[in-house]
Amino acid sequence: MTELNGEKMQEEEASDSIQKIENLYPERKLPPEAIVTRVAPSPTGFAHLGFVYISLICQEISRNTNGVFIFRLEDTDQKREIKDSDTALLKALNVLDIKYDEGITLDGEEKGQYGPYRQTERVPIYNAYIRDLIEKGMAYYCFMTEEEIEEIRKEQKKNNIKPGIYGQYSKWRDATPEDIRKQLELGTPYVVRFKWPEKHEILNHKDLSGKEYFFDTEQYKEDFVLQKSNGIPTYHLAHLIDDYLMKVNLVVRGNEWISSLPKHIMLHKALGLKPPSYYHVPPIEILDPETKGRRKLSKRKDPEANIFNLLKDGFPKDGIKTYLLWISTSEYDRQTQIQNKPIIPDFKLDPSMLKSGAGSLLDINRLKNISREIIAQMSPEELSTNLLEWSKLYDLDFYNVISNSDKSYLQRCLETVNNPNRNRKDISKYTEIPEKIGFFYNEIYETLEYEISSIQNLPFETIEKIINDFLNRYKEDNTLEDFVNIMKSIGATNGLALNKEELEKTNALGLWSMVPAIIRIAITKRNISPDLYECIRILGTRELENRMNQLLNYLREKNG
Ligand code: GLU
Predict the structure, then answer these.
(1) Which of 224, 398, 515, 558 fits as disulfide partner to 487, beta carbons 3.0 to 4.6 Å?
(2) How far apart are CA 38 and CA 24, in angstroms?
(3) How much is the pTM?
């Protein structure tokens, strides 16, 4: 976009400036069903799950209607601004692979023809519209001091009257042009307020969620601020002008904005603009661990509100996105039931499916189940790439170990816990992987403690004999069947029963399953492990031998 010359615009008629501005924002050439939407966060904190949720909805519906998705930064509230939070927001979208067509990019550049996409760079634009409203008598300069406003607030409270500056409470609403000019010349600080029309009417709004609202203008009347005393516009004015110029036809935003909607409808009317459609998104809720009641996900109390905590916790990005898509519409659930599938990979969200009514509950167990399905669909190659990427960011010790050896080794290890063809879906988060496959790596194996409870009733000599027998008989080319038969036969020759009846009838020391239990403890140091046969094949006979001997040494020392 060509540079806007703010100073020059101050000198000309507001309507001329507006004309010039509007020429810079031509109609978009899009198919009639195209949704042009935007996410417009303020850089006032971390990347909230709600922000990701709205961004994902915007991405999906714009993409599925051949529309446009814009990322706009609403950075006009400098008091609340938190350093680097714009980067956190952009990083979150980037990491999650949520793509927008226009807006600010992670490297601070802008893409798109309808910018600038940072509100602080658009101040001359807002000012033109504000001046126009003043010239038309629909907005006015207000020179009231904080003290005066406070006095009014107190009086309204005492008399139980709707709070705010409006009608008779506004000293400057009907001031003469001379009085205004005088104050301006004196340099008295001012704000610009909207002149809420006297005419009483009922505003009707139908949200895209299907919900219909009626607002009585009498109840909402307020000469709200359009421009603050620092010359910067408020959200009410700025977002509306931006959405209008950027040709946004659907505003998707949190439903906490419903109560401000009457202001926005009135402002559209004053400016002679047609409002876009709105979808006020029900909030993401959580079950409060203390009260057990539902409440809005809280920035302060709930770590899961920060998208980076969910990622750090090991949820795959596609798991998070699929989950959010699922809660955005009841249609997703319906489709999973009709198609009898746990997830629908090619699901297409369209605006008619968006959810109305109550908030959506963040159910971590469901998120886990979806993530498990998503991980189960990853090829060993994909999973190893994702795991390396994840651990590099969040578990550097593990990363250093796995990245130090062959990637195909990692893939084979992963296949023991995640192989949908063999119905192994053991992983729902990347954080679970180090515990499950760490033993395959010597550096980790060495740090593990033996869990020997399941074999502690066997005499040392028996364990030693079993281990030696196994090492003598196991061959690298054994089939799974050979492997099982060898273990059974070693069990039998070492006084272990083949089944329960035999165990009861004889004085066997235990069942033959003690044999795999010993091998398992030797090679994994655990009582539970992935498929033992596979584990041995991956580790190789030399390592098998080392680990078996290591267990013997350990038990020998333990027995004194
Ligand atoms: N800047 C507003 C916020 O962060 C955006 C609301 C909107 O999308 O219009 O809540």
Answers:
(1) 515
(2) 19
(3) 0.91
